[in-house]
């Protein structure tokens, strides 16, 4: 038993001794060669050898070259002086001086220009760097700058490098220049093998007159893709964008925005909302999903107001004329040509109908368009999003506002840019000089402005025929008025409303009080506008109407009218004359003698419960305030370390000029 214990102890001691010798051997720095060994000297009082000529050493697979060296073979120290170079795994370090400790495998690299070049030819320069040959890692401090193989620039106060995973990490006062973009952040990782930069903290970026900030993100140089997240904000000369996250593909100019997206376009006076948005640059398109909405703000009669529109999906896209199919051109041009014809003349010429001019019923617009109900209370609240400085646009009433706002603001150009005032018909063979613009909103569409509201299930708009089309149970409310039909079309010229059509099963209801409603029903209903003012309406096809007449401010009489067509001319906002065509009938009844079922036309359906009472029912999102003025005061990157180590300074003149312009100084000099 004692012998066995002794053998175990002897074996353990021998193993530990051998392991210690192996460790000591591993700590030794080996001399590979010296050009002139005769020049080497060894001090009598120490183990330090000095090599006055070029020498080469090795440790942990790293080669160390220098002009002059002081080497302590026993302690494992090496001072390399002059044209020092360390090569390990295709990583090359150069400097004026290196103190190397074989025990810790740390090379303290110092000099006027310490340079590290990895196998991908990314070049880092600094004054102070510590390199670990065992782990193939490095730390730099007191400032450093790197130029990548693609000429991107990254600099910071301190940083870290790992050769095995081809990773640079930059910390504190990080500044980057890539593809004409200037970036500031506090922490950044650059992956050499992927050519990708990961932004680990808050960042700010500038490009010409645009600005971006986010909580973190990444940029892949090879794919030219950017991804930012956490309170993303983008500012351009015309837009401000907010989103929880953003993916941008520079090669295709496509982008995807995720959650709480808001886009403010100050030129087009529009705000876009969505929780998921897709943008394509060629051809240009924008698709909005997940609770999308659009806010179109305007200034009318010196009062700011906002139209909110929402639906399940909102899509906008542009095509060159040659890319639009001929059927679309044929239908849109046909629709436009039809809108130039007078529907009343067509109807009368087809029937040879006699006419009755009704002079006994001269209704003012007030009697048709107003009521004894107070519509000036706070039931419908004017929503003012942004102080508006543009000159007032000429908008009239409900559909005039929709038309002018949608066709001007949503399309970004005059709606008749393809259809000039002489109105040449557009064809698919025309020269590709201007894009054709399309917008489509689908499912559960609601819109709200303080003076009108509406809903439908499909809304279409294009710049070929300047027509807004509402389909699938459309309804529009304006104060005490309701307009319905199987579809509703509105036509514009020069952004002014020209005509509105209620197509098939047209029904107009004007609430007089809680019991009585003026009503007009016909197959089709046409409202005509001149310079934005309603000048005529035509109810065509089995027309019938009920009007409730006041005497001494009290409703006393119901006038019932029937004809194939009922038309009215308006002047100075008054119905100047009404006309009934083909089998006209007109009767008056005292209200006291009427049963409840006699005071409505068949098909009457006042849908006020479906009517949005505030913009919150259409879009409950918080409208973020502009921060454009704040971004102008932010200081862009200065690249002090890049100037020191590379004598370079990324160009920032465009940014300076833009900031001067935004601050109101046209001459930055």
CATH superfamily of the domain at 325-425 and 436-598: Lipopolysaccharide (LPS) transport protein A like domain
| Alpha-beta classification | mainly beta
- Rounded to an integer in angstroms, the radius of gyration calculated over CA atoms is 39 Å
Uncertain ranges: 13-24, 355-431, 654-659, 665-669
| Structure summary, number of beta strands | 40
CATH class of the domain at 325-425 and 436-598: Mainly Beta
What is the CATH topology assignment of the domain at 325-425 and 436-598? Answer: lipopolysaccharide transport protein A fold
Oligomeric form of this entry?
single chain
Q: Can you tell me the CATH architecture of the domain at 325-425 and 436-598?
A: Sandwich
- N- to C-terminal separation? 96 Å
Q: Let me know the largest β-sheet.
A: 40 strands, antiparallel
Helical percentage: 10-25%
Number of helices: 8
Strand content: over 45%
Shape: rod-shaped
Mean of residue pLDDT?
Answer: 81
């Amino acid at each position: 038993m004692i012998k066995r214990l002794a053998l175990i102890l002897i074996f353990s001691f021998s193993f530990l001794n051998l392991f210690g010798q192996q460790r000591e051997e591993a700590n030794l720095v080996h001399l590979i060669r010296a050009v002139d060994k005769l020049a080497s000297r060894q001090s009598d009082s120490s183990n330090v050898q000095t090599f006055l000529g070029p020498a080469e050493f090795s440790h942990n697979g790293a080669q160390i070259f220098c002009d002059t060296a002081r080497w302590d073979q026993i302690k494992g120290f090496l001072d390399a002086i002059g044209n020092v170079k360390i090569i390990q795994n295709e990583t090359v370090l150069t400097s004026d001086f290196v103190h190397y400790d074989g025990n810790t495998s740390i090379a303290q690299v110092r000099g006027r220009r310490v340079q590290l070049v990895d196998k991908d030819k990314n070049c880092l320069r600094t004054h102070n760097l510590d390199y670990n040959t065992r782990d193939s890692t490095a730390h730099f401090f007191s400032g450093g700058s790197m130029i990548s193989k693609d000429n991107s620039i990254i600099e910071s106060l301190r940083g870290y490098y790992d050769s095995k995973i081809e990773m640079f990490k930059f910390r504190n006062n990080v500044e980057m220049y890539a593809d004409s973009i200037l970036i500031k952040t506090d922490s950044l990782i650059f992956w050499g093998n992927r050519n990708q930069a990961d932004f680990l903290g808050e960042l700010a970026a500038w490009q010409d007159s645009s600005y971006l900030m986010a909580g973190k993100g990444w940029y892949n140089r090879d794919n030219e893709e950017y991804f930012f997240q956490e309170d993303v904000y983008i500012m351009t000369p015309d837009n401000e964008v907010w989103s929880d996250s953003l993916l941008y593909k520079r090669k295709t100019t496509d982008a995807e925005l995720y959650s709480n997206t808001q886009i403010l376009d100050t030129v087009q006076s529009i705000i876009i909302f969505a929780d998921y948005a897709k943008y394509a640059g060629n051809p240009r398109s924008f698709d909005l999903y997940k609770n999308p909405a659009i806010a179109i703000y305007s200034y009318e009669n010196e009062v700011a107001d906002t139209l909110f529109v929402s639906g399940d999906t909102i899509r906008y896209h542009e095509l060159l004329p040659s890319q639009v199919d001929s059927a679309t051109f044929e239908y849109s041009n046909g629709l436009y040509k039809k809108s130039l014809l007078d529907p009343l003349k067509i109807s009368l010429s087809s029937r040879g109908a006699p006419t009755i001019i009704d002079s006994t019923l001269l209704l003012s617009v007030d009697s048709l368009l107003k009521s004894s109900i107070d519509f000036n209370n706070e039931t419908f609240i004017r929503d003012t999003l942004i102080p508006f400085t543009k000159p007032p646009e000429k908008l009239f009433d409900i559909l005039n506002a929709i038309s002018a706002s949608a066709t001007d603001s949503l399309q970004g150009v005059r709606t008749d840019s393809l259809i000039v005032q002489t109105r040449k018909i557009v064809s698919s063979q025309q020269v590709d000089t201007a894009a054709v613009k399309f917008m489509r909103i689908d499912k559960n569409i609601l819109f709200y402005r303080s003076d009108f509201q509406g809903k439908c299930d499909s809304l279409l708009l294009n710049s070929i025929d300047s027509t807004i089309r509402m389909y699938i149970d459309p309804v529009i409310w304006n104060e005490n008025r309701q307009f319905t039909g199987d579809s509703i079309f509105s036509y514009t010229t020069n952004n002014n409303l020209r005509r509105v059509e209620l197509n098939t099963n047209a029904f107009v209801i004007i609430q007089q009080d809680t019991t009585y409603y003026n009503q007009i029903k016909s197959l089709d209903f046409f409202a005509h506008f001149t310079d934005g003012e309603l000048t005529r309406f035509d109810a065509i096809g089995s027309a019938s109407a009920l009007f409730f007449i006041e005497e001494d401010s009290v409703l006393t009489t119901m006038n019932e009218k029937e004809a194939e067509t009922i038309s009215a001319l308006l002047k100075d906002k008054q119905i100047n004359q009404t006309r009934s065509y083909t089998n006209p009938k007109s009767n008056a009844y005292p209200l006291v003698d009427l049963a409840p079922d006699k005071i409505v036309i068949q098909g009457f359906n006042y849908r006020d419960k479906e009517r949005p009472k505030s913009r919150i029912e259409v879009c409950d999102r918080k409208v973020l305030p502009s921060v454009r003025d704040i971004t102008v005061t932010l200081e862009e990157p200065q690249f002090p370390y890049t100037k020191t180590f590379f004598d370079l300074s990324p160009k920032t003149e465009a940014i300076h000029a833009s900031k001067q312009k935004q601050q109101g100084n046209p001459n930055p000099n």
